[in-house]
Amino acid sequence: QRRVMGSQFILSVMLRVLCSVRGNSMSALLSGRAANLLSHQRRHYQVSGEDTSYKGTIVEGYGPGYLEVNGVRNYSGVVTFANTYVLWKPRTIEEITTESLALIPLYNPPIEILFLGVGKKNQLVPREIHQYLLQRGIGLEVMDTVNAGATFNLLSAEGRLVAAALLLPEPNEETEVAPS
Predict the structure, then answer these.
(1) Pairing of strands 139-143, 113-117
(2) Cβ–Cβ < 8 Å for 62, 171
(3) CA-to-CA distance for 10 and 143, rounded, in angstroms?
(4) Separation CA 61–CA 41 (nearest Å)
(5) What Cα–Cα distance (Å) separates residue 168 from each residue in 4, 86, 87, 89, 140?
(6) 3-state DSSP of the chain
(7) Which of 6, 54, 124, 148 is the most buried if burial means most Cβ atoms within 10 Å?
């Protein structure tokens, strides 16, 4: 099992190096909740025993045919918000439509940026998706699912108004549904 948090751990190490070069403290660069999330990740990797108070949605890991969010394995894509997540029907980038993203503009408080995780590697999404979100004041960042989940975790912990729509990074052939 690979963990999304591994890339965030690397990010936290990079931030620490940046802070030491600039002579800043981590708290000078990050809000308290983001620093707490990074603290939680360091504890996971036994770098520190600090406690975390962040209680929001965290994309914790993935494996063949699942995404793990808040300790629960989900065998479909998910849409995550700061304090909740829902299962998401699209299984491929071709199945992502404006209708499948209709929930995003309805969320309150309004989302500023949507991180769209499009599977194992980055792919282009149709122009209509970009236009649909832009018309509603929502920025779109398209990336592979693992990085989309990690970026969501970090910015959500900082208190930013972000969401992530994540396809499974590695569909499990045993659970794939043949098109009808």
Answers:
(1) parallel
(2) no
(3) 18
(4) 12
(5) 13, 14, 11, 11, 18
(6) CEECHHHHHHHHHHHHHHHHHHCCCHHHHCCHHHHHHHHHHHHHCCCCCCCCCCCCCCEEEEECCEEEECCEEECCEEEECCCCEEEECCCCHHHCCCCCCCHHHHCCCCCCEEEEECCCCCCCCCHHHHHHHHHCCCEEEEECHHHHHHHHHHHHHCCCCEEEEECCCCCCCCCCCCCC
(7) 148
For the segment 133-154, what is each residue's pLDDT rounded down to a tens digit? 999 999 999 999 999 999 999 9
In the sheet with 162-166, reading across from the earlier edge strand, the strands are: 85-88, 77-80, 162-166, 113-117, 139-143
**Residue 53's pLDDT band (cuts 50, 70, 90):** low
Q: Tokens representing 10?
A: 């690397």
Rounded Cα–Cα distance for residues 21 and 7 (Å): 21
- Which of 39-48, 54-63, 94-103, 113-122 comes out lowest in average pLDDT? 39-48
Q: Write down the pLDDT at residue 171.
A: 67
Contact (Cβ atoms closer than 8 angstroms) between residue 104 and residue 79: yes
The answer to whether residues 162 and 112 touch, using CB atoms and an 8 Å cutoff, is: yes
Encoded tokens for 17: 């190096």
